[in-house]
Amino acid sequence: MGKRVAVVLAGCGVYDGSEIHESSAVLVHLSREGAQAEVYAPDVDQMHVVDHVKGQPTQEKRNVLVESARIARGNIKDLAKLDVKGLDALIIPGGFGVAKNLSTWATQGKNCVISKAVEDVLKAFHAAKKPIGLCCISPVLAAKIFPGCELTVGHDRECEKWPYAKTAETMKELGCKHVNKHVTEIHVDVKNKLVTTSAFMCNAPIHDIYDGIGKMVKEVVRLA
């Protein structure tokens, strides 16, 4: 029997949901490791809907669970029904939906509130000493919930390659240890069983992002 891994999504699309390439990479690499992905998303409205051509919000309303089902090919469950007992690990891909629909990081930064359902799930896996994999912006969830944990979102110095490096500084202000890593690398917080990689926090070729996520998934499955 392969490991059963919960994958929590935040919608569909980089600017208002889960980053599609990251989500797909997680699912492909889980399959390659012989693990069974069980996809979940909260049944809530998105903070807003963004036109991905114009990069501008629209007046439309969409539901996070319904949109996430597009990535999961319809095979998805309400996050409220997740039972940590039957699962071996948790992975949350990135995308602005993490900072908009799973938390209020996009508008409040380090003073954000994490969605109760998401916080409960993260705390349940942590308490059960089951591994948690996070990539791109999703490590901010752990930074907020687990003070003192070790994480990476890539580099902490802003430049053309690392346009979102200020995120690392904000995470440090929450009491976390940020570890600089290249996009193809991961960081493992052994004590907290947290595995993180930067993904699209870096302006890198998509195959490098894919490879970094692959290492994260492989380590999460190994720890499970």
Q: Would you give an account of this structure?
A:
With 224 residues, the chain is of the alpha/beta class. It has a single domain, classed as Rossmann fold. The protein contains 8 helices and 11 strands. It has a 7-stranded mixed β-sheet with strand order 5-2-1-6-7-11-10, sandwiched between helices. Helix 1 crosses helix 8. The longest helix has 18 residues. The radius of gyration is 16 Å and the shape is globular. InterPro entries: Class_I_gatase-like (IPR029062). It comes from Eolophus roseicapilla (Galah cockatoo). This is GAL3A protein.
Question: Which descriptor suits the 3D outline?
Answer: globular
Query: Rg to the nearest angstrom?
Result: 16 Å
Kindly report the average pLDDT value: 97
Coarse structural class: alpha/beta
Number of helices: 8
Order of helices and strands: EHEEEHEEHHHEHEHEEEH
- C-alpha termini separation: 13 Å
CATH class identity: Alpha Beta
Known CATH architecture: 3-Layer(aba) Sandwich
Q: In which order are the strands of the major sheet placed?
A: 5-2-1-6-7-11-10
Kindly report the name of the CATH homologous superfamily.
Class I glutamine amidotransferase (GATase) domain
Total domains: 1
Task: Indicate the CATH topology.
Answer: Rossmann fold
Show unreliable segments.
Answer: none
Largest sheet: 7 strands, mixed
Fraction of residues in helices? Answer: 25-40%
Count of beta strands? 11
Strand content: 15-25%
